Amino acid sequence: MTVVVGTVIVATTRAQQQQQSQQQQSQQQQPPAKPGQSQLSPVAPAQPEAPKVDPEEEKAYQDFAALKGDDYDTQIQSGENFVTKYPSSKYNEFVYSRLTNAYFNKQQLDKMYAASDKAIGLDPNDVTVLVLVGWVIPHNINPNDLEADRRLAKAEGYEKHALELLPTLQKPPAISDEDFASAKAKEEATAHSGLGLIYFREQKAEDSLKELQAATSATSESDPVDYFIMGVDLDSLKRYSEAADAFQKCTQVPNVGAMLDRCKQQADKAKAEAAAQPAPKQ
C-alpha cells in the first residue's frame, strides 16, 4: 500500500498556501502609495520585515519536491539532508510527511514512526500521515508488547481524526475532480481498514466487521486481509454463510498472493459450518 496520490494532494495544497503567503508578505512590504500623498505627510509605521528567503533552502526544497514518487531511496537521503541542514524550515512538515511514506515503502518502520511523529507534531491534520500510521500499527503490532494497548489507541485516534478531516479537504486546482475523488476514497477506505483491524485486535468483532465492510465498499482495490479478517469476524459471530462469502472474496482479490491457500481453506471450513447449522424453525 502507498499513499503517493494523497501526498501529492497535500503537497500541492501546501505549495499554493506558501505561494499565497509569500505574495501577501511582499504586498505588506510595499504598501501602495495613496493619490496626492506628500512625501512629508505622516505615514503609517513600517510593517515588520518578512523573513528573508534563503535561495539555497528554496532550491533544496524544490529539488526534493520534484523527486519521483517511487524513488524512495533518493527521497530518504535528500529529505534527511534537508531537515538536518534546515531544522527550522517552513517546509519540514511536508518533508517529514514524505519521509514517512518513503520509510514505509522501504519497510523501515521504526524510522517511519519517528518521521511521522515529527510530521504530526508540525501539522496534526496531515491526513496522509494519520491514515498511513493508523493502518500500519495494527498490522505490525505484537500482542505481547506491553505498549500494545497504547499504540492501538493512538492508531484509533489517528484514523478517526482522518475520517473527520477527509470530507473537509479542498481540491487543489492542479488536480482533476475525478483524481481528487479517487484519492479521497482510497484514503477513506484505508482508514476504515485500519480501524477494522484495530477492533479485531481488541476482540470487538461487531465493530471490526462494520469498519471492514465500509473499507471494502469504498474502493475496488481492497486489501485481501480485510476480507480475511471480515471472514474471521463473521465466523466468530456464527454467521458462517457470510463468512464463507468473505473468504471467497479474499481468494478473488488480484494481489492475494500467499494468502490464497489460507483463504480457500477458511472458505471451505465456513461452508461446512454453514451446512452443519440446524435449519431455522418454521
In short:
This protein has 282 residues and is mostly helical. It has helices at residues 4-29, 55-65, 72-85, 92-105, 109-122, 127-140, 148-165, 177-201, 205-218, 224-236, 240-252, 260-276.
Describe the structure in your own words.
The chain is elongated. The model is unreliable at 1-6 and 15-44 (pLDDT under 50). The protein is mainly α and 282 residues long. The protein is built from 12 helices and no strands. The protein is 68% helix and 0% strand. It has 2 domains: 1-15 and 55-221, Tetratricopeptide repeat domain (Serine Threonine Protein Phosphatase 5, Tetratricopeptide repeat); 222-282, no CATH class.
Largest sheet: none
CATH superfamily assignment of the largest domain? Answer: Tetratricopeptide repeat domain
Assign the structural class, choosing from mainly alpha, mainly beta, alpha/beta, alpha+beta, or little secondary structure.
mainly alpha
- Radius of gyration based on Cα positions: 25 Å
Tally of separate domains? 2
Could you estimate the helical fraction of the residues in percent? 55-70%
Give the averaged pLDDT, no decimals. Answer: 85
Counting copies of identical and different chains, the oligomeric state is single chain
Shape call? elongated
CATH topology of the largest domain: Serine Threonine Protein Phosphatase 5, Tetratricopeptide repeat
Second CATH tier, the architecture of the largest domain: Alpha Horseshoe
Low-confidence stretches: 1-6, 15-44
Distance linking N and C termini: 48 Å
